[in-house]
Amino acid sequence: MVTEFGCAVIPREMTIVTEPSAFGTALWPFTELRASLTLWAAMNWFHTTRFQNLHFGGRWVTTSASSSSSMLKSPQHLEQLPVLDKVFPGVAVVCTHRDPVPVAISMVAKLTYSARMHRSPVPVEEIAAGWIGRLELMLAALIRDREVVDPKRSIDVRFNDFMADELGVAEQVYGLIGEPVTDKARTAMADYLAGHQRGRLGRVVTSCEMFGLDEDELRARFAPYVSRFLS
User: CA–CA separation, 108 vs 80, rounded Å?
Assistant: First the structure.
């Protein structure tokens, strides 16, 4: 089955294929399909259908016994705040912010590594350039649309602040959506953090040079985002 939006033709099955992240499409060498996801109508359909799938049969979404709240997470939400606010009236949004250069390099590393399963040879520099351009568009959209969501229903969280006080930030998010932080929840989060310390499995070392990128150029391209959210 397909749903048509102008020139975009998107298979319904894609909602399953790209779970849990709409950015699964970045793994596909189909630039037309990735571009179609920037269409308002397409994303409107995508999010509503995606949410239905998440709740199908009561599976895939974890909620507490006292809550009906659910969480969606996708990098593409950065450029779709107006859609989220329209499709899910009253939605609470947590915008997390981090230095975009290492984020971009990390994603490029994952994409190029994964591409070995379906492309030979792997066009490393092509994939890197495409991802960098995509991220630049998403961050520009976030700058443009950040105020679309009511400040009473949204919060900005810097990565360094989160790492400095993970439980404290979690409690802020609970407060944003009006959920109580029970002793059981607090203990569960503390136990999880104790068993999942950053770097426990080692680190993957990457660099801009590995992918034919220039760090100074990237910082110049991402400067508007850094100035808006990280300065």
Answer: 22
Phi, psi dihedrals of residue 148, rounded to the nearest 5°: -65, -40
pTM score of the predicted model? 0.77
pLDDT in tens, 29-75: 444 445 545 555 555 555 566 666 655 544 444 444 455 667 777 77
Task: Supply the pLDDT for residue 12.
Answer: 39
pLDDT(224) > 70: yes
Q: Would you call 38 helix, strand, or coil by DSSP?
A: coil
- Which pair of structure tokens corresponds to residue 5? 């939006």
Q: What's the CATH code, domain 92-229?
A: 3.40.50.300
SS3 97: strand
What CA–CA distance (Å, rounded) separates 145 from 157? 17
Q: How far is CA 61 from the centre of its chain?
A: 17
Locate 140 and state its tokens: 């520009």
Candidates 213, 228, 28, 224; CA nearest to 102 is 213
Higher pLDDT, 84 or 230: 230
Q: What is the pLDDT of residue 73?
A: 76
Residue 75 and residue 134 in contact, taking contact as beta carbons nearer than 8 Å: no
Q: State the span(s) of the chain assigned CATH 3.40.50.300.
A: 92-229
- Asked whether the beta carbons of 198 and 163 are under 8 A apart, the reply is yes
